[in-house]
């Protein structure tokens, strides 16, 4: 760094060029502050926020990125006018003293630290439909991230990113978190962040919402009852209660710590949502009392799965649906053990099939894109043998055998089981 500073003092004009991209918009560009520090005027391409100090503050010359002719013209202007260079160099040094010294840079943070506050728009920024410069990535990096987390095809991921209702749900989730932040912080140790704010689970809530909507559309004027089973607190039960007047919503959580903040949130939201805490078996719901049971994540594991499914089956009315999300993706950060996923699916199939129930295995995601793809297509983006072998083990564990006619294998991330009449 000492060598760079000596070099900056030996030249008349600094040069900084960037390509037009997302990283440029966010870049701090410390090289420019080093130029300002020694009073060196700069010829730069616009893009970084600090470029505004150059163009508006008169600390140099700023030209559009990619415009070689304009960049050359600015360099010639700087070379032909030494006096103007010196004047702009003094301006650069003045801007550094005002904005970029250690004291000036830390002043806003120290002011906030003396009296902390929360920004009024905290939690309201959308993840998907962002404004420029983030707009250039919303149909590239974002679908690829979702692709790693359960949706096997890029075109399905694009449908997610472009869906208006998905965007609205995302905003609604953030506003719910913002309104109830203080209450939710009290259970932060056990509370799971809303799935709509997690890359590996974002598709779960839209799936459940669409399934609930489809079920209610069959009898639009008949009152229905939904049981939401989740360890944490989510916006979706409140959203469904508001969107569907004929729907009565009841929330169940196995975590006792959720009950008090949940009751306060119900009062704060002003919606007639019920709340019960404890294991599903201990609550003691009446038999055949729910038309829909939505489970974004089964709250039990291992040997407890069968008992939990027995109780869910008992309290579900004939013709009702159990909407269940099972994450069988191979995301390295949040892997679901193969055996656990297999136990869930196997217990579901066994419970419904052995008692002669009508069973409907559905796996539509959002606009109806079926999660039924050939094995080669499902992991075509991954070149790692480890991922391939793990996906095959999951398929074998779930009992999803290849169709010999089409030579394809079927995989489901979300399932809907319908309770039929006894045989």
Helix and strand run: HEHHEHEHHHHHHHHEHEHEHEHEHEEHHE
Secondary structure class reads alpha/beta
Helix content: 40-55%
CATH superfamily of the largest domain: Vaccinia Virus protein VP39
Number of helices: 19
Low-pLDDT segments, ≥5 res: 127-154, 328-336, 353-412
Main CATH class of the largest domain: Alpha Beta
Major sheet: order of its strands?
A: 6-5-4-7-8-11
Radius of gyration: 29 Å
Describe this structure in words.
The protein is α/β, with parallel strands linked by helices. The chain has 2 domains: 2-114, Glycogen Phosphorylase B (Rossmann fold, 3-Layer(aba) Sandwich), CATH 3.40.50; 201-418, Rossmann fold (3-Layer(aba) Sandwich), CATH 3.40.50.150. Helix content is 46%, strand content 13%. The chain has 19 helices and 11 strands. It has helices spanning 2-10, 22-26, 30-37, 51-55, 68-80, 82-100, 102-114, 141-147, 154-162, 164-179, 181-185, 204-217, 236-243, 259-269, 280-283, 304-315, 338-354, 375-378, 385-398, and strands spanning 14-16, 42-45, 60-63, 224-229, 247-253, 274-277, 290-295, 316-325, 364-365, 369-370, 414-418. The strands form 3 sheets. Strands 6-5-4-7-8-11 form a 6-stranded mixed beta sheet. Helix 8 (141-147) crosses helix 9 and helix 16 (304-315) packs across helix 17 (338-354). The radius of gyration is 29 Å and the shape is elongated. The N and C termini lie far apart (80 Å). Residues 127-154, 328-336 and 353-412 have low confidence and may be disordered.
């Amino acid at each position: 760094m000492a060598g760079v500073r000596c070099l900056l003092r030996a030249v008349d004009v600094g040069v900084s060029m960037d390509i037009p991209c997302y990283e440029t918009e966010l870049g701090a560009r410390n090289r420019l502050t080093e130029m300002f520090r020694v009073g060196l005027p700069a010829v730069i391409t616009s893009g970084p926020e600090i470029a505004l100090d150059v163009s508006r503050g008169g600390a140099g010359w700023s030209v559009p990125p990619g415009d070689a002719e304009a960049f050359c013209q600015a360099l010639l202007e700087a070379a032909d006018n030494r006096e103007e260079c010196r004047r702009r160099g003094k301006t650069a040094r003045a801007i550094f003293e005002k904005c970029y010294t250690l004291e000036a840079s830390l002043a806003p943070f120290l002011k906030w630290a003396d009296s902390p506050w929360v920004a009024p728009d905290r939690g309201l920024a959308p993840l998907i439909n962002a404004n420029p410069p983030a707009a250039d990535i919303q149909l590239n990096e974002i679908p690829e991230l979702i692709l790693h987390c359960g949706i096997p095809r890029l075109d399905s991921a694009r449908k997610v990113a472009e869906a208006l209702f998905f965007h609205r749900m995302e905003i609604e989730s953030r506003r719910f978190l913002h309104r109830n932040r203080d209450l939710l912080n009290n259970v932060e140790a056990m509370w799971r962040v809303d799935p709509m704010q997690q890359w590996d689970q974002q598709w779960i809530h839209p799936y459940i919402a669409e399934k609930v909507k489809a079920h209610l559309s069959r009898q639009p004027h008949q009152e229905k009852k939904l049981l939401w089973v989740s360890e944490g607190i989510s916006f979706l039960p409140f959203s469904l209660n508001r969107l569907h007047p004929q729907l009565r919503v009841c929330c169940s959580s196995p975590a006792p710590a959720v009950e008090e903040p949940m009751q306060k949130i119900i009062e704060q939201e002003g919606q007639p949502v019920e709340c019960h805490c404890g294991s599903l078996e201990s609550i003691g719901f009446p038999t055949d009392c729910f038309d829909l049971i939505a489970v974004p994540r089964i709250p039990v594991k291992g040997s407890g799965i069968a008992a939990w499914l027995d109780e869910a089956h008992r309290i579900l009315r004939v013709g009702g649906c159990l909407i269940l999300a099972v994450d069988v993706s191979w995301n390295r950060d949040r892997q679901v053990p193969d055996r656990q996923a297999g136990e869930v699916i196997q217990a579901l199939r066994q419970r419904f099939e052995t008692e002669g129930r009508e069973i409907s295995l559905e796996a539509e995601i959002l606009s109806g894109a079926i999660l039924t793809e050939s094995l080669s297509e499902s992991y075509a983006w991954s070149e790692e043998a480890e991922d391939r072998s793990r996906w095959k083990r999951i398929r074998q564990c779930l009992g999803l055998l290849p169709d010999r006619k089409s030579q394809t294998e079927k995989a489901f991330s979300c399932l809907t089981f319908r309770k039929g009449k006894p045989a």
